[in-house]
Amino acid sequence: MTTGDKEKTDERVRETKTITLVGSAVNILLTAVKMAAGMMAGSAALVADAFHSLTDLITDAMVYVSINIAAKEADEDHPYGHGRAETIAATAIGATLILVGLLLLMDLGKKLVSGVVGVPQWPALAAALLSIVAKEALYHYTVIVGRRHDNQAIIANAWHHRSDSISSVAALIGIGGAMAGFPMLDPLAAVIVVFMITKVGMEIAWEALGDLMDTSLSAEKMEELGKEILRTQGVVSYHELRTRKLGGDLFVDAHIEVRPDISVSEAHNIAETVRHNLKKRLGATDALVHIDAEDDMQYKIIRQSRAEVEREVAKYVSSTAGVRGYSQVVIHYLGGETVVELVVEVEDGATVGEAKQIAIAMKKGLEDGKMIHKVVIRGKLTDNTIN
To answer: Cβ–Cβ contacts within 10 Å for residue 185, how many?
Structure first.
């Protein structure tokens, strides 16, 4: 990890921990205030809302633990890092919301069936107003930090705050309606609050499960990655572009096609340039770039070794009159065929015409065999290539 990457990670951990601790403090206060006001003022909606704030406090703890785990560097057992901890925390947050929603719904069902409905008092109204203001402010603060650092658990927690704010609005309406002479509005508002809690939980859990299943990025993000790859000089095309997220970490795999006649080192430099650009310009944590000399989606493996090809070349060179030797053998496997390039040195005193005839004979002999499909021969007496 570079110094710049470490500083970025440290800042990410520091800010996400701070917002989580601030959220915990707010949730402790709101849980106590709403629970006390709800019970004293006789508001089922506010009591349900207090349980919502309590689940916020529980999920704050989950997020805090996940931040510490995700901040650990990659090791032998976790070569891709510990970013999955954030996704697991987001899944747990969603599951917690769903469970709390179902439990509250069962309790409210019993109260509605019993027909015992009280009229809440003004402290419940005040507590609901306080909750709306506090949780909406906390949502905006949290979601900004979560998006800045692409932390799925923090963003999930922010939406948990927002759901608490919305549920407080429902509670406020229910309490106000009950105080105005419509007592059934309070328990009905409580039911709405519970459904909101459950809905948000399902959405958070579903998105987190998608990341656990290595769901790809959106089509727009994939297109952006593809454009960045093609922007790199030397890339002919790309295919098999794959992505996956581990918490806030993005990993990219891609096959790039380069010209088949360039050196291995040049192709490697192109691939490393693509990797660098994806990391620096698009925020990828790392990228694995595979180099292809052609589109290998339907690649046909040619099962022969370099030693076998060289033996075939040596056999024809040794049996061709007028040839002193050969060098610079380059083997290409393209389109399911074996293509060989080599430099041939003819005997001293040979004319250009004689050198051409020797090369043509060698080319025909090699291509007539079963192993080599195409031969490109270059001679020292001419700059021309014999194809």
So the answer is: 21
Can you read off the two tokens belonging to residue 61? 């703890």
pLDDT for residue 4 = 54
Cα distances (Å, whole numbers) of residue 216 to 138, 188, 207, 213:
30, 40, 12, 9
Q: What is the DSSP letter of 214?
A: T
- For residues 56 and 274, the model is more confident at 274
Q: Which H or E element spans position 78?
A: none
Judging by DSSP bridges, how do beta strands 323-334 and 374-379 pair with one another? unpaired
215-225, pLDDT tens digit by residue? Answer: 778 889 999 99
Residue with more model confidence, 358 or 153: 358
Q: Kindly report, residue by residue over 118-133, the tens digit of the pLDDT.
A: 556 777 778 888 888 8
In the three-class reduction of DSSP (H, G, I as helix; E, B as strand; rest coil), residue 3 is classed as helix
The pLDDT score that the predictor gives to residue 230 is 95
Q: Tokens 């402290």 sit at which residue?
A: 123
Per the model's pLDDT, the better-predicted residue between 281 and 109 turns out to be 281
Residue 234 has pLDDT above 80, yes or no: yes
168 C-beta neighbours (distance < 10 Å), count: 30
What single-letter amino acid sits at 211? D
- Pair of tokens at residue 351: 């004319």
Go through the domains of the chain in sequence order and give each one's CATH number: 3-212 (1.20.1510.10), 219-292 (3.30.70.1350), 306-386 (3.30.70.1350)
CB 157 within 8 A of CB 28: no
Asked if 98 and 198 touch (Cβ cutoff 8 Å), the reply is yes
How is residue 216 annotated by DSSP?
A: P
**Residue type, position 327, single letter:** S
Q: How would you classify the pairing of strands 385-386 and 323-334? A: unpaired
Q: Cα dist. 87→1, 154, 165, 171, 188 in Å?
A: 22, 10, 24, 31, 34
Residues 6+ apart with CB under 8 A from 340: 309, 313, 329, 330, 331, 332, 366, 372, 374, 375, 376
Sequence-distant (6+) residues with CB within 8 A of 28 are 57
Q: Considering only residues 242 and 155, tell me which one the structure prediction assigns the higher pLDDT.
A: 242
Residue 19 to residue 16: CA distance in whole angstroms = 5
Which pLDDT belongs to residue 383?
45
Helix (H, G, I), strand (E, B) or coil at 238: strand
Helix (H, G, I), strand (E, B) or coil at 81: coil
Q: Which two tokens stand for residue 20?
A: 């989580």
